[in-house]
Each structure stands twice: as structure tokens, then as C-alpha cells.
Amino acid sequence: MRLFLGIDGGKSSTTAVIGDETGRVLGTGSGGACNHVDEPHGRTKFVNAIESCVGDACRRANLDAAAVEFESVCAGFSGGPVDKQALLREILRTRQLNVTTDAVIALAGATAEEPGIVTIAGTGSMSYGRNAAQKFARAGGWGYIFGDEGSGFDMTRQALRAIVRHEEGWGPASDLRDVLLRETGATDANDLLHRFYTPEFPRPRIASMAKLVDRVAMEGDTVARNIMLNAAQQLATSTSAVRSQLFEPRETATVAYIGGVFKSELLRERFQMLVELEDGNRVRPPRYGPATGALLEAYRLAGLSPNLSNAPEYEK
Fold first, then answer.
1. Single pTM value for the model
2. 65/51 Cα distance (integer angstroms)
3. Does the residue 144 lie in any domain?
């Protein structure tokens, strides 16, 4: 029995999925964060995370983790693939290995390997696509200083800017002020801004406050609503930019969305409406998660394209 392995290595956790040559998923496993091997103790954390998640998946699949050999492995990482190839060769026994980015496996899982585009919006944001000719394209994903339009971090930043503008006398009032002051314990907009520059408020924590912007928007606040709708517009625009690089006018393309930002019904519905204004686009939730996408890429590496069975559903 030939075995295949997909790995999704992220900033908070690592997931492994093992499948056989028929496409049946045999087991899944999880481990810790593994995306920055160049940080202090990063190599140890990386090895522990990979061994933990693969070992867990092997146990669930009734396989001996110490003896298992894979036909092919695909691993995608949020921190990039450059510093991880050699380490994976030391840890895993496999005939073929593809180490790639998290965007590749997110796309593969979201569209189930169909030609299409995935737009990712969480702490950061980007759009990534692949057409039938296996050409890839991207838009965004350039980080919180120079990009990440429509991301959770960007929405919270826009909310803070709106609060500051009002206090300085050149912007409308908004309930966002009281909501964010309560959430952070800040005394005023100036205090809030300075707190966001401290280690107490890392980017993921700031990005998580986008859900408060969404809540205030749903309660009827015009400023918050405009922030949410503008974020949807920016994400739709990045999707369109990728489409223009890969697909002919009116050519069918599946567009999937991933990330905590899309938990907002207001933003998600506006995003879908804007994207589907372009002929040929079909917006839908992701079919599978990134780890299963990595497994699909492992099959593709071996020249296979089986229909998956027993695959874990995407966790919305």
C-alpha cells in the first residue's frame, strides 16, 4: 500500500493528513507551531511539531511511525519553505518531497485542485490562484506595513484611525470608540493607539478585534459598516487582480474564501456579490482545509488525482 502525506505548518499549530493510493484518508494528527526555524529554539520546535503531528496521524491510521515510508509528501508553511526542506528530509522517509507555501495548499484544499482562486483574510490577507495550465498568480500578502488590505489587522487599524480622527475634530463619531476602549482598558484614543504599539498587543490580538468592528457595524454604526464594506471591496479587488492574470473573460473560475474575516456575514455577502459581478466567477466556501490540500498536492506530485474519501471537513 502506497502512502501519501500532507502537512500544514502554521504560526499556531501543525496538521498532518495521511492517505492511501485510493484517496482514502487514513488518519490526521496535530502538533505545535513550526513556521520559524531560525528563531531561538526554532529548529527544536519544528522537529517536535512535525514528529508530533505525523506520529499522531500514524497512530490514528494504525501505522508504525518509526517505520512508515511515504510515496510522496507535500508540506506548506506560513513562514515560507526555504529553511525547511533539509529538515524534513532528516525527519521523514519519502520518495518525493515538495515543500511549498501555505497559499499553495490553501488553494488546493479550498478548490479541491480545480482551477480557481482562494482569497485568504485573517490577520493578513492575499489572493492566490491557479489555472488549468498550472500557471499561478497572486495579489497581496505583503504584510501589515505595505499590504494586507481587507485583513483583520487592517480593519482594526481603520477603526483606530476613525476614532483618532473624531477626537481630532475631522471625522464622524462612532460607537467603535467606546467598544475598543472597553476591550483594551484604554482611557482615550491616544492611550489606545500607544497600547497597540506595545508587545501586549501583537498583531494577531489586534486583528482579532475586527470582530468587534463587525459587531458594531451590524448594530447600525455607519463608520464601522463602511470599514467592513471597504474591506470586502479590497478583497474582491485582489481576487479580480488574480483572475485577470489567469483566466480569460467569462471563463469559469471557482473562488473560495478562507480566514476569520469571512466569519462576518456582512463582509462575506458583499464580497460574494462583488466577485460574482464578474462573469464566470463562482464563489463558494472552501471544500477542504489546507492540510488536506497538502495531501492533494502530494498525490499530484506522484501523478495521481484520486477522489478523496473519509477526508476531514473544512472547519469554518
1. 0.87
2. 9
3. yes
